[in-house]
Design goal:
Layout: H1 6-14, H2 21-28, H3 32-45, E1 48-52, E2 66-70, E3 76-82, E4 86-93, E5 98-105, H4 112-129, E6 137-144, E7 148-149, E8 154-155, H5 169-180, E9 190-194, H6 195-207, E10 213-219, E11 223-229, E12 232-234, H7 265-269, H8 271-280, H9 288-296, H10 300-324, E13 328-332, H11 338-351, H12 354-357, E14 361-364, H13 371-384, H14 387-397
Parallel strand pairs: 3-6, 6-9, 10-13, 13-14
Antiparallel strand pairs: 1-2, 3-4, 4-5, 7-8, 10-11, 11-12
The protein binds zinc ion.
Zinc ion binds next to helix 7.
InterPro entries: ATPase_NBD, ROK, ROK_cs, WH-like_DNA-bd_sf, WH_DNA-bd_sf
Family: Belongs to the ROK (NagC/XylR) family.
Pfam families: ROK (PF00480)
């Protein structure tokens, strides 16, 4: 039954396995009339469209078969990427194209009530800008700089998000959406995920679709890692995987970390730590993005500290890479320039076995500051149009027969 469902046909169309009625019959073994019936459900929902295929599809000179495709414009996704002092929000179509974007100062330590309310106001303005209302939105995706239990959508013991521990973010986001966005209903799906996971997800899909083990390390205010295995985010059993910023280094016992422990990697090698070290060296710097600004102008202390930080991170990554054997290690975030990368390479290749790094590419981000938004959009679309979810949404929206 499931094999034959409309949601399953949609998946075959979306991933390119079968894009004509004939191919769908062959791949599924369904009859012509059953395929037609299932496709009608998808057409009525507005999820797919049929376009004239290329003449090359009809080599005998007959009528080219009609090609089925996912209609990426039938709805939009609202996404936001929260950093500690700054946030981005955007309206994306279902193919990930950015229709409108807004970014600005938003302090995460103001707490979830204030922050999510402001985000909903941003969403309202963005929708207005593209001439849409809340009815057009199929889901909301939020990227946060902390560990997330994706089942509940709650952040769990986030060291740099004071006041957010176990806060019911999806509920609060839904209420804010209904309050601020015209046509915005209280039932909107809201998905929350860790920022490094989403960045890894987006970068792997875009730039390295054939890489079966992909590792991204984000070094901004904090340090986190995202792992994508066989195209799926690897979260561990409850979303704590990849929080490498709080691995203890044995030789920095007096460095106090935001998590309350001493000697964490983030306490000595994060953007926040470097901002403090730069300030102490006489270059007043407020945050990871301040360090980024100093690096951009080649400030010598910033360059030296970034390389040393890269070495510390590279030492930890030697273990991570030995465990995962990734094909790509991507360094992203505020510190991800040449000095930091040099430091990472120095320690990584020195400490990891040659066998683990023989085919490893160490690279920087392609999507840059938009990786988190792109990942959040892809997460929402993949979740809402997965076969089972698609079927239940079709059933819920279908008129009674
Ligand atoms: Zn820590």
């Amino acid at each position: 039954m499931n094999q034959a469902s409309a949601g399953h046909l949609l998946q075959l169309i979306r991933n390119g396995t079968a894009t004509t009625r004939g191919e769908l019959q062959r791949v599924t073994g369904l009859s012509r009339s059953t395929v037609a019936h299932r496709l009608d459900q998808l057409f009525r929902a507005g999820w797919i469209r049929e376009t004239a295929g290329d003449p090359v599809d009809a080599p005998t000179g007959g009528r080219p078969s009609l090609r089925l495709e996912f209609d990426a414009s039938h709805a939009v996704v609202l996404v936001a990427d929260l950093e500690t002092r700054h946030a981005r929000a955007a309206v994306l179509d279902l193919g990930g194209a950015m229709l409108a974007e807004h970014s600005g100062s938003l302090m995460i330590n103001q707490g979830p009530d204030e922050v999510l309310d402001r985000l909903a106001q941003w969403f309202a303005l963005l929708l207005e800008k593209v001439g849409l209302t809340g009815d057009a939105v199929c889901g909301i995706g939020l990227s946060v700089p902390g560990p997330v239990d994706v089942v509940s959508g709650q952040v769990v013991q986030p060291p740099i998000m004071p006041g957010w521990d176990r806060y019911p973010m999806p509920d609060r986001m839904r209420r804010a959406f209904a309050a601020h966005v015209s046509g915005g209903g209280p039932e909107i799906p809201v998905l929350v995920e860790n920022d490094a996971n989403l960045m890894a997800y987006a970068e792997q899909r875009l730039g390295y679709p054939d890489c079966s083990a992909f590792l991204l390390v984000k070094v901004s205010t904090g340090i986190g890692a995202g792992v994508v295995v066989d195209g799926e985010m690897y979260r561990g059993i409850d979303g704590a995987a990849g929080d490498i910023g709080h691995i203890r280094l044995s030789d920095h016992p007096h460095a106090l970390c935001r998590c309350g422990s001493y000697g964490c990697l983030a306490a000595v090698a994060s953007g926040r730590a470097l901002a403090e070290q730069l300030t102490a060296a006489g270059v007043p710097t407020a945050s990871g993005s301040g360090v980024r600004d100093q690096l951009a102008i080649g400030q010598p202390d910033a360059v030296r500290l970034a390389r040393e930080a890269g070495q510390l991170v590279g030492g930890v990554l030697a273990t991570v890479v030995t465990l995962l054997n990734p094909g790509v290690l991507m360094i992203a975030g505020d510190l991800s320039g040449p000095p930091f990368l040099t430091g990472v390479r120095e320690l990584l290749y020195q400490r990891a076995m040659p066998r683990t790094t023989a085919y490893l590419q160490v690279v920087t981000s392609r999507l840059g500051d938009r990786a988190g938004l792109a990942g959040a959009g892809a997460m929402v679309v993949e979740s809402l149009y997965a076969p089972d979810r698609a079927d239940s949404r079709l059933a819920a929206g279908a008129p009674r027969e």
